């Protein structure tokens, strides 16, 4: 199997526990998996945020100063820099009153990708198209 | 998509199961999820049992809680770990733990 | 037979999600499937050697050793593990140490994947 | 302060996680705390189960055989043997359709105490009368 | 000044409930209160020495050492700790090891008690 | 009884706060509990804010999430760790973490 698609879906908010953070770093690791695969084999994650999972993405996070840890915002920038597809559920952003422009971007770091705010139907589609799904 | 979903809590904090669509949906009740199969709340069976006809509950996780296989709702099939492996490989092509 | 890649995040002692992962892996291996297990988050605490098995607590070490003996491949997230103060020489023999891409590589090869979240 | 009353309230079911079990063993440890206290000083816990916390108490638990661990049922018998007051919320038992006679007892082991199935108001009173409260 | 007895059950790395307990203890000690902390459950993993502090993870060792230096009394549940494979010589210096009644004794002496549950 | 309650989740799995009575009840929002103070669900503020007039939210836990002190509902007082210590010792005689 050449490419294997994985849908990683974060349903819990960031910070209190570790799992929702580890989802992001696991997705980012797709970048180096080739060293363990044969030529032409790839893993392509789509990182999706739904439900309360959309809460912890907002810009302006102050994690390093306050708690001495990398912020989720900074992780999200890294996902964009390594060209990951990041889908955030529009219905859930609306539900919680979070504007789309509160989503982090990595424009100033030269990222081509941006966070894609999409209807849940798009995330359903990503789950359907994936070979495997992981819920965090 | 044939999706097998593991449910391990009674009181779910996510509404993902209400939103996800699958041509074939299986719900495998494990850990505290087994209460969906055994326990009515104010006389009413869990609404989870209405979501699909493909319902399974892990026997060990029923019995460790002092519940009996006879307590399990008739719609739910009692399975063991080995059955779950077969379900995963034969009946569903993706599995999720919510 | 098939290949099963399990990812397990919740911790070991008294956390019965961990026990579930162990028993599922065992049942799959008994049926002849090839099984790999990835530990991340709190589950990495389970690779510490010399766990004392008290009756009040489930243990990580015994089922892990039994699974390794059955040919189940087990790998712990190095960063998560050293962050918990556990170094490789202190860990259970036979457990692999690697980075998160190890899990993605096993997922690539797998027929079925089960990622067990939770803290 | 001679006696210190502690209300320990379990709101989560047994087994999946560890906290609801540790509540019980912490309560039982009141029995040996005197070695760390002055003469005449005591700690008196009341162990209360409310909400989903009442689910994991039922008789006939098969934990040692199936998972190699002590059952909550066995822990509950120990609480009675060491004369702890155990209060279980009647409204919640009713809500989940659990009969009172499903509660474990330690009669055959000679315990004087039994589990007390009480209205929530009694548990509220235990919380009010306690010097400290702990929710598990 | 008062006496505060904190009980903490949730684990350390990336679990910010643990961080909360550390910061609350620190603030109370700074105000001159006498503080004792009891670790049970997953939080006992925090007493393992030589935790590597990676930027992605909060650490248990640094704040614990800082609190001990400030006179905060810290004790880990021995059973929970050895069940996780951590022996006393492997633990952070200055952390006490005892049974659950240690916590009840500190609760007896305390003016205020905060028991932080969660896994 | 003067009871100070810490709430650390947005989606609560226990109804204990609905049942507990206290002459003086304080709610201290920490961790993911801060969303009760900052975030409306479908335009509606959290019902937790109606339970008492003694509402507090931990500033650090607001800021780490990219939220601003200005986002906090006017009924909720923004506090730091040191303030919480004072609340525990001076304003309440028992504290609970739900």
Question: Which SSEs are present, and which pair or pack?
Answer:
The complex is a heterohexamer, with two copies of chain A (136 residues), two copies of chain B (98 residues) and two copies of chain C (119 residues).
Chain A: E1 3-10, H1 19-28, E2 42-49, H2 63-67, H3 72-81, E3 85-89, H4 90-95, E4 116-118, H5 120-129, E5 132-135
Parallel strand pairs in A: 1-2, 1-5, 2-3, 3-4
Chain B: E1 2-7, H1 16-19, E2 24-29, H2 35-38, E3 54-58, H3 59-63, E4 77-79, H4 81-91, E5 94-97
Parallel strand pairs in B: 1-2, 1-5, 2-3, 3-4
Chain C: E1 3-8, H1 16-30, E2 34-39, H2 61-69, E3 73-77, H3 78-83, E4 96-98, H4 101-109, E5 112-116
Parallel strand pairs in C: 1-2, 1-5, 2-3, 3-4
Number of strands of chain C: 5
Mean pLDDT of chain C: 96
The end-to-end span of chain A amounts to 25 Å
Detail the poorly predicted runs of chain A. Answer: none
Q: Which strand order do you get reading across the main beta sheet of chain A?
A: 4-3-2-1-5
Largest sheet of chain A: 5 strands, parallel
**What profile does the largest beta sheet of chain C have?**
5 strands, parallel
CATH architecture of chain A: 3-Layer(aba) Sandwich
Count helical runs of chain C.
4
Structural class of chain C: alpha/beta
Q: What is the H/E order of chain C?
A: EHEHEHEHE
How many structural domains in the coordinates of chain A? 1
SSE order of chain A, one letter for each helix or strand: EHEHHEHEHE
Mean of residue pLDDT values of chain A:
97
**Based on the structure, what is the oligomeric state of the protein chains?**
heterohexamer
Radius of gyration of chain C: 13 Å
Name the biggest interface.
C-E, 31 and 31 residues
Count of discrete alpha- or pi-helical segments spanning 4 or more residues of chain A: 5
Structural class of chain A comes to alpha/beta
Give me the CATH fold name of chain A: Hypothetical Protein Ychn, Chain: A
Q: Kindly estimate the percentage of residues of chain C that lie in beta strands according to DSSP.
A: 15-25%
